[in-house]
Amino acid sequence: MAPPTYSSLFDPECIRRYDKAGPRYTSYPTAPLFHEEFGEADYRTWAGRGNEGRPLRPLSLYFHLPFCATVCFYCACNKVVTRDRSRAARYLERLTREIELQGGLFDRGRTVDQL
Q1: Distance between CA 108 and CA 85 in Å, rounded?
Q2: What percentage of the chain exceeds 90 in pLDDT?
Q3: Which whole-number Å values give the CA distances from 92 to 5, 37, 62, 82, 98, in the listed order?
Q4: Who wins on pLDDT, 5 or 107?
Q5: Tens-digit pLDDT profile for residues 90-112
Q6: CA distances (Å), 36 to each of 25, 30, 45, 101, in order?
Q7: What backbone torsions phi and psi does residue 91 show, to the nearest 5 degrees?
Q8: How much of the chain, in percent, has pLDDT values that exceed 70?
Q9: Where are the alpha helices (DSSP H) in the chain?
Q10: How many CA atoms lie within 13 A of 105 on its CB side?
Q11: Which of 49, 57, 72, 89 has the most CB atoms lying inside 10 A of its own CB?
């Protein structure tokens, strides 16, 4: 059997289409599109729309845990370098509360596909 060719492994048109600078990770909408006019009621409406229809759409969740004991010089993430674990504990308490608040907006039957 012959080895695969470049064109059978990669779609050159797809590579050209996405060969441009972008953020390291992407949220939707991206941060530059955030604005003050989009308030709590709007957020609740849009969050609720994800609960419509069957089958329920899965969720992708992101949790940023910015506490590191040492600096990794290759890492560009927003971070707090500290060995004071109480700082992380306070952050995790608030994160837990945020999860509780957000969890009330989403149907419990929705699966988490990405974390």
Answers
A1: 32
A2: 37
A3: 49, 29, 14, 15, 10
A4: 107
A5: 999 999 999 999 999 999 999 99
A6: 23, 14, 16, 21
A7: -60, -45
A8: 90
A9: 6-9, 12-18, 40-49, 85-103
A10: 16
A11: 57
- Coil, strand, or helix at residue 114? strand
How far, CA to CA in Å, does 71 sit from each of 25, 30, 111? 20, 27, 34
- Cα distances from 55 to residues 35, 44, 77, 102, in angstroms, run 32, 21, 35, 21
CA distance 17 to 11: 10
Secondary structure class of 37 (helix, strand, coil): coil
Please enumerate in sequence order all residues whose Cβ is within 8 A of that of 58, keeping only pairs 6 or more positions apart, or say none: 110, 111, 112, 113
What is the spatial distance between Cα 110 and Cα 58, in angstroms, rounded to a whole number?
5
Distance CA 95, CA 63 (A): 8
CA dihedral 11, 13, 18, 21 (to 10 degrees): 110
Instruction: Say yes or no to pLDDT of 23 above 70.
Output: no
pLDDT at 4: 67
